[in-house]
């Protein structure tokens, strides 16, 4: 079993990637050298783990004891917010985190990337996780053959794993920044002068990632044992390929016109560039064949899985709620294709649970937990259909049935089970108690100073499991970087865009069936999407617009907190979602139940509440002043000024 951080991060840090004049620092010192690292299987395994340790995770990790997990600090977490906080899923109310000041108020600029603080993804070659991972992957690939106590088969497999670290890191850079410099070897004082550091096109970068995935798929086994859970497999490689091809097919880059025109490169950078600056965030034309490539890659994946006896399946234990709560979190569950694990001493109450979670842990009331980072919007809750597959819009329910509700009669009863596993819902169960999201309830926080925790009426539940300290702490924490469910929905989306409507419905229904929802039909599509004004596209898309929207909604329901929604919004150029009004609600206690003198509820019988009308939240600056430049992050000016061949992204 791999638990990230087993060592040697400091060994390789001396020679980690640096662009510009100080591209490569002095090699490791005399005590521990590259020769030492690759003198035994034990040491070389640690070097590979050092590469794995750079993989991105959306779960907040903050370590102050010297443990080497520095790559998930605020520089990659929007200042402790998550990527969903800048979508329509979450409206953060944590004023010291990054989303409010940097993104909601449009204070983000290229200079933010120089500091690499409170941004979505660090490009910084000196300290960013992506470049360190790429560097470490290549060092491993180029040196592992010298290890004396490893078999040829072991070396081949481990090279494939290192190649996948490189592929994942380039994939992160691609989706945040577009085309980037491509390194196809490690960098040393011997070869530094001959390496092309100039920025490459979006397509060149994507095709390089696909090339890495294809090669890794030939080097890796389809599955690994439970003891090796967390290592990359051929299935990991083929799955990541489908995601990268989906980016290539999507209208953000697959279009007859660019979303914005980039600035003219400086003369010094232009002299070193080998690619058209426009094509660094745009493919140059629209080709329907790019959608067919996605279809082909998905079919290759499923065919290979079948040839191997279908070991990868959607997790299903027969209970829809339980199936969803386990499918993204449990290790070696047959569904997670790529994971990013961390072993944290006190994960349960420290940081992640603190800033995203419930203000009442176990039976503790009004403790110091909850920072308002995970406030879920009513817009997101409204995406979850009832168990008949029909929409339930909160505003319409309140208008029809009134504001006075009970536990059994309210707008959130009998919904898609994923709602209750993703969002804290008033009256649900969590950690052996009722979720009290009503004012004066323990979960909400009785003191006025606590109200920001659940200012929207909801908070995050996903990745905050029903464990107490004894079962939650001192355990590896698994973040699902990519699951089988995503391959099904990628396949569904691509089938729709190639005109195979009925087959697209079949793939969409795979994730719906797991949670007990009925199969999607034309009638249900009309019920769920017919009342919306859907965007139109200049690209000659052939997909059914209502099914396209339903797939995007399904991806939001399935992958909350798995860093999917942001990229869905940008790759479909959804300015309307950036501009949409976001809503909150609040729940007031009326009568019933029984509480102790200190305010702890000991009975919930016959309780009644007043559920408010939807209330519009303070709009983000995007609502009035949106620019397509937000589709990509800015490149750090300090790197552009080093003149090794970068050009700034459009609009920045």
How would you describe this protein?
The chain is mostly helical and 652 residues long. It has a domain at 346-473 and 583-616. Helices cover 37% and strands 7% of the residues. It has 25 helices and eleven strands. The strands form five sheets. Strands 2-10-7 form a three-stranded antiparallel β-sheet, with no helix packed on it. Strands 1-5 form a two-stranded antiparallel ribbon. Helix 8 packs antiparallel against helix 9 (234-249), helix 9 (234-249) packs antiparallel against helix 11 (289-307) and helix 20 (522-529) packs across helix 21. The two termini are 44 Å apart.
Strand tally: 11
Report the helical percentage: 25-40%
The overall pLDDT, averaged over residues, is 87
Shape: globular
Count of alpha/pi helices: 25
Largest sheet: 3 strands, antiparallel
Strand order of the largest sheet: 2-10-7
Outline of this structure?
Helix content is 37%, strand content 7%.
Keywords:
single chain; 652 residues; disordered N terminus; mainly alpha; two-stranded antiparallel ribbon
What is the fold's blueprint, element by element?
Blueprint: H1 9-13, H2 34-37, H3 41-52, H4 98-104, H5 110-115, H6 129-143, H7 152-177, H8 202-219, H9 234-249, H10 267-270, H11 289-307, H12 320-327, E1 336-344, H13 352-356, H14 378-381, H15 394-401, E2 404-406, H16 417-422, E3 429-430, E4 433-434, H17 469-472, E5 475-483, H18 484-497, H19 501-514, H20 522-529, H21 545-559, H22 565-571, H23 575-579, E6 583-584, E7 587-591, E8 594-595, E9 601-603, E10 608-611, E11 615-616, H24 622-625, H25 637-640
């Amino acid at each position: 079993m791999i638990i990230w951080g087993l060592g040697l991060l400091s060994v390789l840090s001396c020679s980690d990637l640096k662009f510009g004049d100080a591209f490569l620092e002095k090699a490791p010192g005399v005590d521990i050298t590259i020769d030492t690292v690759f003198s035994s299987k034990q040491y070389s395994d640690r070097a590979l783990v050092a590469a794995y340790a750079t993989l991105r995770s959306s779960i907040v990790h903050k370590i102050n004891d010297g443990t080497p997990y520095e790559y998930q600090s605020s520089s990659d977490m929007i200042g402790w917010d998550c990527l969903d906080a800048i979508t329509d899923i979450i409206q953060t109310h944590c004023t010291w985190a990054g989303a409010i000041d940097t993104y909601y108020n449009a204070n983000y600029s290229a200079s933010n990337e120089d500091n690499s603080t409170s941004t979505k993804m660090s490009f910084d070659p000196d300290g960013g996780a992506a470049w360190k991972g790429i560097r470490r992957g290549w060092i491993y690939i180029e040196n592992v053959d010298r290890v004396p106590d490893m078999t040829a088969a072991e070396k081949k497999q481990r090279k494939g794993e290192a190649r996948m670290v490189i592929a994942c890191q380039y994939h992160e850079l691609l989706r945040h920044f577009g085309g980037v410099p491509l390194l196809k070897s490690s960098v040393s004082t011997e070869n530094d002068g001959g390496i092309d550091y100039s920025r490459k096109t979006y397509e060149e970068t994507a095709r390089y990632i696909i090339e890495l995935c294809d090669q890794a798929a030939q080097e890796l086994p389809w599955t690994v044992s439970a003891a090796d859970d967390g290592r990359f497999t051929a299935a990991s490689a083929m799955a990541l390929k489908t995601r990268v091809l989906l980016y290539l097919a999507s209208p953000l880059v697959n279009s007859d016109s660019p979303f914005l025109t980039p600035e003219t490169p400086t003369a010094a950078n232009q002299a070193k560039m080998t690619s058209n600056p426009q094509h660094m965030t745009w493919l140059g034309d629209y080709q329907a064949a790019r959608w067919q490539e996605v279809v082909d890659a998905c079919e290759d994946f499923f065919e290979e899985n079948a040839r191997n006896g279908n070991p990868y399946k959607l997790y299903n234990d027969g209970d829809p709620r339980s199936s969803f709560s386990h499918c993204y979190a449990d290790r070696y569950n047959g569904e997670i294709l790529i994971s990013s694990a961390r072993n944290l001493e006190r994960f349960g109450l420290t940081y992640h649970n603190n800033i995203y979670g419930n203000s009442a842990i176990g039976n503790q009331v009004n403790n110091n937990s909850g920072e308002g980072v995970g406030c879920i919007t009513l817009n997101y809750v409204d995406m979850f259909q009832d168990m008949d597959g029909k929409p339930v819009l909160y505003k319409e329910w309140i208008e029809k049935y009134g504001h006075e509700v009970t536990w059994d009669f309210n707008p959130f009863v009998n919904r898609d089970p994923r709602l209750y596993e993703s969002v804290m819902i008033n009256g649900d169960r969590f950690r052996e108690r009722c979720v009290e999201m009503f004012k004066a309830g323990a979960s909400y926080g009785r003191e006025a100073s606590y109200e920001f925790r659940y200012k929207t009426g909801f908070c995050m539940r996903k990745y905050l499991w029903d464990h107490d300290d004894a079962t939650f702490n001192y355990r590896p924490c698994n973040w699902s970087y990519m699951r089988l469910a995503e391959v099904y929905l990628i396949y569904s989306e691509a089938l729709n865009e190639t005109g195979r409507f009925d087959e697209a419905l079949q793939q969409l229904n795979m994730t719906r069936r797991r949670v007990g929802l009925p199969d999607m039909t034309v009638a249900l599509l009309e019920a769920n999407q017919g009342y919306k004004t859907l965007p139109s596209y200049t690209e000659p898309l052939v997909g059914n617009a209502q099914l396209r929207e339903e797939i995007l909604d399904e991806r939001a329901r399935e992958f909350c907190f798995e860093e999917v929604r942001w990229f869905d919004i940008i790759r479909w150029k959804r300015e309307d979602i950036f501009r949409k009004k976001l809503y909150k609600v609040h729940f007031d206690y009326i009568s019933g139940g029984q509480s102790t003198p200190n305010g702890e509820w000991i009975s919930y019988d016959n309780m009644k509440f007043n559920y408010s009308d939807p209330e519009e939240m303070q709009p983000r600056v995007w609502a009035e002043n949106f620019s397509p430049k937000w589709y990509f992050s800015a490149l750090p000016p300090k790197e552009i000024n080093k003149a090794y061949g970068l050009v700034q992204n459009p609009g920045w």
